[in-house]
Every structure is written in structure tokens, then in C-alpha cells.
Design goal:
With about 325 residues, the protein is an alpha/beta fold. The chain contains twelve helices and 13 strands.
Length: about 325
């Protein structure tokens, strides 16, 4: 459905100089500054996939999305959506895509929501029969009927996001771009939006590209993620592969009856490893022993057996590395 082939995007701007003299000099200077926002990114997305496209602020996510929607031309490389070049076939491409921006709306602010939908129906040449079918489905999954006759400016943020999602899907696009679709929403509305996206994807095999900083959106919706940093792709694969590759840290907490008998040096000796191979914190007040370790080096039974040689264990809890922590580490240090 989407083919991105070695795309680059450079932004050229006049060089600026400091101070009043610099401002005057800038008026006559022909020097330019080139900023590369996207560098040699390639990927393919199949029909019906839900893909998380994530990165830190300024990484190049929005620039890539704008090239895929046809708003921007790549400086170099090629982008095809459903076989069309978005920037060269903007009208045809517009009929194949829907876009939702969490901080912007495509609805008419002072008109009732129903009027906005009627206008969009005419813009996209949706037949009366298709419109009725589509609205029946959208009302079912998004519950638009509760505020369908209200002016858009009177809608709450959650209602407006549901309305924007419905508007983007009115012409049954093959590809849906979602930019922070759950930003600022409460937990119940977030769940409703996520469930609606899942149902739309399952019913119509709509391909969904999701950019978000909400890791729960990624975990709930996406089976695959693409991570970019400083304009370059640094990861493309499944969530499970990401966790297996970079989420090697595991935490085990044990409630022990004789915490004073447990110490790091003795535990390391029983495990036949160096003290530097894991971190251990002992809370003697609550008798809770917390151990963070690399699961590629040690297994839970080994640690439990070693601790039980020093003290009786009454409770145990195991925690995997959260996806949010993995992504935060990748944003900070990149991939290995």
C-alpha cells in the first residue's frame, strides 16, 4: 500500500547573522543554510497494517507524513501510496487517504457537525447510499449522534476528536494517517478512540499510520513500529522483537523474612557472577529485596534459589522492562 524509497528532505533558508549589522548584512547576502530533516528513509507498509511511526520531537516524523500525504515533495527519492506519487497526483491521492491531526481540525468551527459532514460528502463525491451506510457505521463505533447537531466550537476535546476521526473516514480511505489522535483525552475516551480504530481496520482493512508519544497507543494498536531519530530510520520491526532485543533488563522483587542475612556479595557468590553484573537494592524496613538483572545472563529460578539459601521467601513479583523505558533509552542513546 505504501512504498517509501530512499527519501530525503532538505529545507533551505537564508543564513542569519547576529545583531543589527548582521540583520542588514542578511538583506544582501546570498548565503543559504541547508537543514536535512529526513535522510535516506525506506520502508514498505502492506494493506491493512497498523504501523506506529515514532521518534522524539524534531526527529522528522511530520516531515515524512507530509511527503506521504503529498503536502511536501521529497528532495530526493520516491514515495508511492496505493501506486500513486502523492505530490504529483494530489487530487487522486486525497481520495485515498484520511488524515487526523490531534491539534488541528478539518471541521468548520461555527457550523453544526452535521453541516461539516454534508460539505465533506460533496467534496469527496460520496453517494447518498454510501453516506447513509458510512454514517450508520460511524455512529455505531464513534457515537456521533449524541452531538451531531451541535456547532463544532461547542464540542469537548474528546467529542471533537471522535468527530475528526469520523470526518477523515467518511469517504472510506484506503490509508489513514493519525497524528497524536488521543492527545489530551481522558482514559475512557482514549479507549473508545482506540477501539474505533481497531474496528475500522478490521472491517475495511484500512492501513493506519500512527504517530504518537503515547506508548499505550502503540501497545494497544500496533504490531509493528518504525523509529526515526535525527531524520534517519533506526528501527523497523515488531514490538515483540524490540522488547526481546532491547528489553533485556528484568526486575524481581522478593519479600524475605530475614533481610539482614541477604547481602550483595554473598548473592553474587552464590550466582557465580561479578557484583557488577546486576544491581541490587535492599529495603530492610519492609523486608523487600529488589534485583535488576540481564535476563540473557540469569534466570529467575537461579536468583530465587540463591536468595532462598540465605532467607525464607514469602512473596515474589516479576516485572518485564516496560516499552516506555525501552523507547526512552533508544531516544536517549540510539540503538546498538
Amino acid at each position: 500500500m505504501i512504498e517509501v524509497k530512499h527519501i530525503y528532505k532538505d529545507f533551505v533558508s537564508p543564513k542569519k547573522y547576529p545583531g543589527l549589522k548582521g540583520a542588514i548584512k542578511g538583506l544582501f547576502s546570498t548565503e543559504k543554510v541547508v537543514k536535512r530533516a529526513v535522510e535516506d528513509i525506506s520502508f514498505n507498509i502492506e494493506k491493512g497494517e497498523i504501523v506506529g511511526y515514532i521518534g522524539s520531537n524534531g526527529a522528522g516524523k511530520s516531515t515524512t507524513i507530509k511527503m506521504m500525504t503529498g503536502i511536501l515533495n521529497p528532495t530526493k527519492g520516491e514515495c508511492l501510496v496505493n501506486g500513486l506519487n502523492p505530490s504529483k497526483n494530489r487530487r487522486k491521492n486525497a481520495k485515498n487517504i484520511g488524515v487526523v491531526f490531534g491539534q488541528r481540525t478539518q471541521l468548520w468551527w461555527d457550523l453544526p457537525l452535521s453541516e461539516s459532514f454534508t460539505i465533506l460528502k460533496e467534496i469527496y463525491n460520496v453517494s447518498d447510499e454510501d453516506y447513509e451506510k458510512r454514517m450508520e457505521f460511524l455512529n455505531k463505533v464513534l457515537e456521533l449522534q449524541d452531538f451531531f447537531d451541535k456547532p463544532v466550537r461547542t464540542l469537548s476535546l474528546g467529542q471533537r476528536m471522535r468527530a475528526d476521526l469520523g470526518a477523515a473516514l467518511l469517504h472510506n480511505p484506503k490509508v489513514l494517517y493519525l497524528d497524536e489522535p488521543t492527545i489530551g483525552l481522558d482514559l475512557i475516551v482514549k479507549d473508545n478512540i482506540r477501539n474505533a480504530i481497531k474496528e475500522i481496520n478490521e472491517k475495511y482493512q484500512t492501513t493506519v499510520i500512527l504517530t504518537t508519544h503515547d506508548i499505550e497507543d502503540i501497545e494497544e494498536l500496533c504490531s509493528r513500529i518504525i523509529i526515526i531519530d535525527e531524520g534517519k530510520k533506526i528501527y523497523d520491526g515488531s514490538l515483540q522483537k524490540l522488547k526481546d532485543t532491547y528489553g533485556t533488563k528484568r526486575k524481581v522483587e522478593m519479600e524475605v523474612k530475614q533481610s539482614d542475612k541477604v547481602n550483595k556479595a554473598k548473592l553474587a557468590g552464590l550466582l557465580h557472577i561479578s557484583e557488577n553484573d546486576f544491581q541490587m537494592e535492599l529495603d530492610k524496613t519492609n523486608n523487600v529485596l529488589s534485583i535488576i538483572f540481564d535476563k540473557s545472563m540469569l534466570q529467575i529460578p537461579q536468583i530465587l534459589s540463591a536468595v532462598m539459601e540465605m532467607s525464607e521467601v514469602s512473596d515474589i513479583q516479576i516485572q518485564e522492562t516496560e516499552l516506555a523505558e525501552i523507547v526512552k533509552e533508544i531516544y536517549s542513546h540510539g540503538v546498538a
